[in-house]
Amino acid sequence: MITWFAMLSNAALPALAxxxxxxxxxxxxxxxxxxxxxxxxxxIAQFPLCxxxxxxxxxxxxxxxxxxxxxxxxxxxxxxxxLSGAAGxxxxxxxxxxxxxxxxxxxVTLMFAGPQPALARARIDAGxxxxxxxxxxxxxxxxxxxxxxxxxxxxxxxxxxxxxEWSDLAWVGAVYFxxxxxxxxxxxxxxxxxxxxxFFQRSWIDxxxxxxxxxxxxxD
Length: 220
Prior knowledge:
With 220 residues, the protein is mainly alpha-helical. It is built from ten helices and no strands. The chain has one domain.
């Protein structure tokens, strides 16, 4: 019972996000520009959220009192944010509240959850790795979708009626969050306890991500 509850709770938010993206892709005319902007902000926020997840995963291994993990976490996040200049940029946009909520949740977890057992740390690591892999793949998938749609419009438009709207990219977001929901649920399956790796931690996915955008001479 506890495992099923953990699976559902871990998958619920990304599944809800997938529904929002699918609804927008199906009926974009029913939504205003603010709704579209919030969906763009949510997707763009996944990139800094991946970095926060990596920091959270790393400090989860620190033994001792909770304040020690929080201190290291806050120090790394503040240092990277200040050094890159990203903190001021993100928190002046709609992405700010998303990141602030994520930081608050991670700080509370680090402070009160105590040292994580090995299986819990493996879940944190796997979740962070899956999020990074899927976010990179989604970004390239979005670019490929735009390029493919424009090519079809230019070279196949004489035979088929092909229209491309920017709202169609919401399907990329819908698929992305469906996969994130499955990734979150997978962490509580027997298969994960055997592998101790995320569902999307596969050698061929790692190879694909490493070689995206590289020339044939540079590839492994």
